[in-house]
Amino acid sequence: MTEPVVWVGTGWKMNKTLAEATSYAQTLAQAALPETVQLFILPPHTALATVRAELPASSPVMIGAQNAHWASEGAYTGEISMRMAEDAGATIIEMGHSERRSMFAETDETVALKARAALDAGLVPLICVGEPGDVRAAGEEIEFLSRQVDAALSRVCSSEVRKVIVAYEPIWAIGEDGRPATVDQTAPVMAALAALLARKSDGRGPRALLYGGSVNPQNAGELLTDPTTDGLFVGRSAWQPEGLLEIAQLAAAARVPD
Question: What is the residue extent of each domain of the chain?
Answer without folding.
Answer: 6-254
